[in-house]
Each structure stands twice: as C-alpha cells, then as structure tokens.
Amino acid sequence: MTQLLTSEKCRDIIRMGPEAFRQLCQKLRGTGRVKDSIRSTVVEQVAKFLHIIGHNVKTRTMSFFFHRSGETISRHFHNVLHAILSLEGEFFKQPSGEDVPYEIRNNSRFYPFFKDCIGAIDGTHSRVKVSRVEAPRFRGRKDHPTQNILAACGFDMKFTYVLAGWEGTASDSRILKDALSREHPLRIPEGKYYLGDAGFMLKPGILTPYRGVRYHLKEYSSIIDAVDRELLQEQSIDRSQSNQPRDEEYRHASLLRDNIAFEMWNVYQSL
C-alpha cells in the first residue's frame, strides 16, 4: 500500500490521487463501518474496493493478487460500500434555491439570465450484469444491458441527486416520474429550475425542453400528471392525436429558449 500511494500509477490503479485517497480512507474510517484488522488495514480494504469498481475486476482475481479468500474480499468490498452509502446525507445535498449559484452570480454571461437555475439534470446509461431472463429489460439503446441513471448536479460539478436502478429500456419520463414521487424525491424549489442537455428545463410551473420536445405545464402540482400523460401517449398505437399538443409544446420551448438567447445577445451588443 505504501508503494501504491507513492507511485505515479496511483490514479491508474485506483482512479484516485494519493491525497484524495488518504482523505477518503479517513472519512470512511470515521463511519465505524470499516476497521483495521490483524491482516487487513482500512487502506487496503478501500484500495481493493476502488480497484474492483474502477476496473470491473472479479473477486477471484482480487483473491489471487491479495492472497485473501474470496469471502474476505467480498466482505471487505461490502463493508466499504455500506460505509460510502452511509455518507449520502453528508455529500448529496439538494439546493435550497435561496441563493443564486456562485458560478451564475459571478458570471456576466449567465447572470441574470439563469439566476433561477439551480443545476443541471440528465440521464446516463451504465453497464450492468444481469441474468439472461432479465437482460431484455436492461438492453435499451446499447447492445449490452444497462441501467438508465438519472442524475442532477450543481454548477460546482457536485452531484446533488442520483437515482439508479432503472433498466435500460425505461423511458426518461418514467424515471423522472419516479424521482419526483419517491419517499426521498428530487426537489425543485418554487420558482427555480434545472437545465438538461438531453431533454429538460424543469421547474415549478414549467417542464419543457432545453433541447428536444417534452412538456409545457401550467402548475407545479401537475408535473407528475403530465409525465403520466406522456407515458400513456408512448403506449398509444395512434400517435397522430399527440402531434398537435407536442407541436405546441415545442413552439413554447423554442420561444423560451430564443427569448433567453435574444436577451443575452442584446447585452453582448451593448458592451
């Protein structure tokens, strides 16, 4: 372990620099869920965990290189995993919306145009290994099984919300509905919104595309109802009935986007 933390290959092996790794070990040790043992230190256990998730290494492979039983490797992995999950409340904090993000407030290019924007939201597909029976549900846009993960982050590049577990074939609408209605939901402060590269400008009163066609809502309380309507539309055989509302939604979204761009251009010309 000492050689690992002093080697230039540290990032290649555990996907993390030496100082960040030391701080992570200290943080996980403080949870009480990862402890030094006679044959394995906290540093070794965390290093094994990071190497496994960073390189998709199997337990039996780690067992060979670390001279530990497969049961020991698995136990250490899950100890570290549970310790990391226990820190969720400390690191995943959704924005209150009370303050304009520093990155917006102190950038004349974005302020005041995005003063009510609290972050960005988007989905990503992560590869998973599932049984052959479940594989078709997880094989969506990719050739291999994936999870469709919804994530939100602030402008400081820190994640504020993550919803994982949905199969790759699940639509963004279905996952968004779940995120908004869970026991611990994605929260959107009144008057604020999220921007999304692949689909959403999401805020109380409006859920409309930043790029693409989604929804135009009248009230915040109707967000989930609107998602339900799209889910029904997806299942409908006759798509023609939904073309007109979607055209209206697209026009509204384009107008909203163009208005912001127009205001920014006017400011730029006046400089």
From TrEMBL:
Q: Which UniProt keywords apply?
A: Hydrolase, Metal-binding, Nuclease, Nucleus
Domain spans labelled DDE Tnp4: 121-219
Asked whether the keyword Acetylation is assigned, the reply is no
Q: Name one GO cellular component term.
A: nucleus
At the top level, the lineage of the source is: Eukaryota
Domain DUF8040: start-end pairs: 7-85
Task: Give GO terms: molecular function aspect only.
Answer: hydrolase activity; metal ion binding; nuclease activity
Q: Where in the cell is it found?
A: Nucleus
Question: Where is this chain primarily localised?
Answer: nucleus
Q: Which cofactor does it need?
A: a divalent metal cation
Spell out the family assignment given in the record's similarity comment: Belongs to the HARBI1 family.
Protein name per UniProt: Protein ALP1-like
Q: State the organism named in the record.
A: Arachis duranensis (Wild peanut)
Species lineage = Eukaryota, Viridiplantae, Streptophyta, Embryophyta, Tracheophyta
- Gene name per UniProt: LOC107475632
